[in-house]
Amino acid sequence: MELKSPNIRHLRIFLEVVDSKSISKASGRVFLSQPAITQAISKLEYNLSALLFQRRSDGMYVTPSGEVLAQRVRRALDLLINGLKGAVRIGGVKGVQPSQLLQLLTSTQLRALVAVSEAQSFSMAGRNLGVSQSSVHRAARELESLLGIVLFEKTSIGISASKAARLLAKATKLALAEIAQGRNEIDSLYNREAPRIVIGSMPLARTSVLPKAIIDFSNSFPDVKIIVNDGPYNDLLYHLLDGDIDFLIGALRFPPPSDDVVQEELFTSTIEIVARPQHPLISAQTITTNMLSQYSWVVPRKGAPTRAIFESIFVKDDVPLPRSIVETSSQILIRSLLLGSDRLTIISGHQIQHELSQGVLKPVSYKLRNVHRPIGITMRSSWKPTKAQLSFVNSLRRNGQDMNDDL
Q1: Model confidence, pTM
Q2: Residues 275-315: pLDDT tens digits?
Q3: What is the C-alpha to C-alpha distance for residues 43 and 338, in angstroms, rounded to an integer?
Q4: Out of 3.90.1150.10, 3.40.50.10170, 2.40.50.140, 3.40.190.10, which CATH number does the structure's domain 194-268+375-406 have?
């Protein structure tokens, strides 16, 4: 279970008590009574099912759970402050301190911001949050009034989120992800129900390093829920940067797609041109680029590294690209199209290792020059993994090294 709706004020109060080691001192800093602070801390501890402080006669001393939460909360609030800073800058608002705005923000406003930005509709956002449309509309407009900028505008097809709204919504989601990470770490300290790991997976990883890593990891963390999201690279990257996905596994991009991500290579995959065993080119002694251009192909979508390799084959020899092309990343569809016709594809040898070993498909003897495909992990540069997440990443590293050793 995740701490989906942390009370921003309670989190700020919690940090003040951590820093001052005193409810009375924190009371003066946040302008709340001592009973109110005590109640806020109690609610946090109840929601987390964890003791955050040891109450002593000489002050409040943070527990290991409290230390974990404090680290995550600091990161979360820093993300929100940076988001506020960017939003007011884009909105042209001057003379406003983001740290002061943070003191006035409510969790309800932030949830409304994210929900409307994603749904592009007040009514749909309300349904997604399980509240009325009017409640979402009111919270969103209160946030606009607080910031002094326009966040949402009505269009012919719904509600459009401004650039400032999108920036602050992204910062909010990343902040909430940090709080959720803290909850996961606290749960692991108490040996409670393990957290989930959300992975964005691209085609090659799904057939090679990822299954092995999942099997190895599950032996040590059998209760961890693993969610694997498939999809085009750009979609997965978007969700990674928004905090919906913990990390991506698949073909790396060069240069990296964003300053906000880091890439780690696990292994290098060879690239093959492949066809069914009965294809005329399988028995050909010499194959030219012109011969390849005469056949139909199944290739990845534009922007994929292997698609760029495919196009470079013909460009370097000044040969027109094949006219009949099917674009897909579905290995099932690729296999069926190859087996049912004389189409060709260009694909990682790791990705179809089973088909090649069984003789179901065969490589075409056309030498690809200086072609390799780095496969690895893409993570947010600010990502701090939990113990379980780090263990999974280490399992990927071990299996990636094994695949390199087999080359």
Answers
A1: 0.84
A2: 999 999 999 989 999 999 999 999 999 988 899 999 999 99
A3: 60
A4: 3.40.190.10
